[in-house]
Amino acid sequence: MSETLTPAQAWRTLREGNQRFVHGTSSHPNQDSARRDELVGGQNPFCVIFGCSDSRLAAEIIFDLGLGDAFVVRSAGQVIDDAVLGSLEYAIGVLGAPLIVVLGHDSCGAVTASIDAYTSGEMPGGFVRDLVERIMPSVITAQRNGVTEVNDTVVEHVKQTAKRLLATSQTISSAVDEGRTAVLGVTYRLAEGKAELVSGFGNV
Question: Any signal peptide, and if so, which residues (predicted)?
Fold first, then answer.
């Protein structure tokens, strides 16, 4: 599918799927045995969704997608590390996906922990500390702009994460510059089920 979709068309497909989900009219496409058989020989996803690991943020469900539609990468607080970058570069450079969506959500526990650490000056232990350290630049930016509420900080973190992808990965930034890919920042509202665009790089 990615060979026939532009970044704008891919985003429109996701928006339409999310609207069906919000209205309770999901069509559950590409989830039958015929689709499963079709994909045995390879994959050709039309989008990459880099989202938080939160159990309430199941990308294929909230965008009404099926097998082979989305290449999904998840980490708590959608934090970037080498494995995430490698996964995204594979999806763009090898699979040719025309769209990356950075997906955050309301009431994010990882962002909340980072705000708490910023406020108290006390960092959590174990590898949770690593998550908080990676989110902290977004929290600091939000705080300097007078943003203290969790959900508004999530929006800032999504924006910063999208920018960081382009600043860090030559593969991704080149694909955007050449018009082959777009990177969008999107936040998800848990109560409404709605995905909203908050930032964008590329032609959509």
Answer: none
Q: Cα–Cα distance between 69 and 60 in angstroms, integer?
A: 8
Spatial distance between the Cα atoms of 109 and 72, rounded to a whole number of angstroms: 20
Residue that is written with structure tokens 């665009």 in the block: 197
Q: Both tokens of residue 55?
A: 């159990």
Q: What superfamily would CATH give domain 7-201?
A: Carbonic anhydrase (3.40.1050.10)
d(CA 146, CA 134): 20
Q: Evaluate if residue 180 carries a pLDDT over 80.
A: yes
Question: Across the beta sheet with 99-105, what order do the strands follow?
Answer: 70-74, 47-51, 99-105, 182-189, 194-201
Q: Domain map of the chain by residue range?
A: 7-201
Question: Radius of gyration (Cα) for the chain, nearest Å?
Answer: 17
Which token pair is 44?
A: 């050709």
Name the token pair of 121.
């000056």
Burial of 150 from C-beta contacts in 10 A (0-12 / 13-18 / 19+)? middle
